[in-house]
Specification:
Chain lengths: ~525, ~230
Amino acid sequence: MCQHQFYVAKPALKSSVTVCARMRRDLRGALLLLLTAAVQSSSMSAPGKPVLLSCRSPEKETFTCWWEPGSDGALPTTHHLYYERERLEGTYECPDYLSAGRNSCFFDKNHTSIWVDYYLTVMASNALGNATSDPFKMDVMEIVKPDAPGNVTLWVEEREASPCVHVRWMPPSNTDTKSGWVTIKYELRVKKDNSNNWKEYTSGTQTHFSLYSVSPGGVYTVQVRCLLDHGSWSEWSNTTFVKISNYLQNERPLSMLISILSAILFIMAGLILIAKRKSVKQWVLPPVPGPKIRGINSQLLQSGGSDNVGNALIIKQSFPPIYFVWEDQMEDYLIVTENEDWLSSNSQKRKKSLIPACFHFDSEIHSKESPCHQNDWEKDEEMSQVDNNNKPFTNTGYVDFQRHVENVQEADVKHVDYSRVKEVKGDNVLFLEKEKVQSSGYMDFQRQERIPEDYSRVKEVESDHLVVLQKQNAADMSCKDEGNHYTDCALHKPRKPHVCTELSDSGYVDTIPAPPLM
Amino acid sequence: MPGTIRSVSLVSVVLLVCLSSRRTSVGAAPICTNGQVGCHVLSLDNLFDRVIQHSARMHGISSDLHSEFEQYFLPSKNQIGRVGRICHTSTIITPNGKENAQRMAREQLTEVILKLLIAWRDPLWHFHQSMAHHHDFNNFSSNKALEMNDMVHELRQGVEKVAEKMQVLGIISNSVTSLASPEVLLPSDSADWRLMKDYDLLYCFRRDSNKVQNYLKILKCRIVPDHGC
């Protein structure tokens, strides 16, 4: 500014100098104004009102009070605590501002009275003013809160059955328990591993405690706190933890092994039982014998079958087997001859025995002594005994005709060819008519019908495929063998040795050639 | 037959009575102060424990009642008078610290305790009466007031017994005047307790019951020190 003026105010140099000085004064004034304005914007003021927070007596002999200062007004502020006391005249200031830290007041034993009311106020003051807090009334009796117990120690007693933890601690150092002035009660809490569940126990006035509900392998955390008379509980002490050794771990694999082995044994036993359940069932529940009826074999009855039914009814073999042999025996047949000479030669022997319509049966089984065969064998003396062995007509038998081979072709296989009995001579000889009666009547002694077939007697077997049939020669006889029965031909025909062929099939020889069936 | 039954029942009843009396004599015999024959002698230690327990219980009840009253008639902190209330027992000189209590003589301490207990006999009776008539309070509170009243009576009798025992044992001298004439103890210039409000009465009694408990404990640990101290 001044330089400009120099240029302009060349003619008036004096006036420019005075203008500069004025400007400097204005500048200073402006600066001062700015400063004051700045100071005012940061609010330097009287301090704010402080607040008394709390007071606490740790042992009922001294106490400390704390306050919260208000705003300090951007000026260095000092705080003073003043108190009045019941039964004490006057206002007094805090005896100790330092021992308990900042913004606190510590009352030592000389300045502490129990069972009297204190009225406390805090005054904050700075260059600009003062501020006083609200009065705070208190009685030392009501503000007792002890320090936490110290020296909390744990030790584990490892007993075999179950371990236990012993806890021991010391009372807070500043409390006087010897004079009986205060009575301390303790409380502890235990936490297992990292859970958040604390379990609390009351210890009374003891400074030791035992925990029995601990399990091996766990980490236990213990905290203790205390109480004086009727005051407040202290803070919890520092955590102390202890780990219980897992000495049972060595036994665990063994017990597991034992349990696994026993489980395997059980499973095996169960499998064996299941496999042999039938025998086990029989052993456990023996079958109750059922009733037995004489003469009946129930097992065979149950098994069914018509053959077995019959057999089932036999218990003893006392039944004459003859009966059943008779059933099977169908092969009885009569040798009928037209040869009178043959007849007459034997008639003398036969006159005595009277067997009406005796057929000459050739039963393969038993009739070795068939009476009808006696005619055939003149020398057979055994036949004389056979008189008693007459077969009744009721037996199933059939008449077997000796046929000429030539008749075979004419014969109808299906039809039964019978000859009428012309005359019965003697015991076992029948005279037949020469006429043939075809299916117009027949002697049927059978209960069962047999296949009407024509049979011829086999005279001889000359070769494997040649069988010589016998002509109508009554004297000839043949014997047949059936699969099941055996006839001793030698006994019957001592005179004429015949070749007995064993026929493997049913025993009947079909005539050759077989006539066509109509 | 009924006659024999009656006689048998009578005999059994008599036996039962004798047995029960024997048991009671062992369990709750009257405390002998003069060494009489037939009564159970309690040790001083035991006596002290009983009275201390009693006083602790009394203080607990008074604290409960006081906090109940505070809920109903909570005086704002602004209304706290500078000097506070004046309890009618404030004229009784009581030690207000541990050292003061320890320095006090046993007889004096015993006397202070007795003075306090005697001074509260009438006010508590009236307090209980006013509580019973006031239907604002539930039965629980009025029961507590009655219990408190009874406890003061019992505690006073217990402390008197302790003092007598101590005198007998020679622990304290016979200068305890409260035992002779209790009326002397009532301070003549004490503020009339009838003028006090109920809340102030409770406040004062809570404080005084705490004093009694503390004094008794100090006395006990001074006279019969054991692990309980």
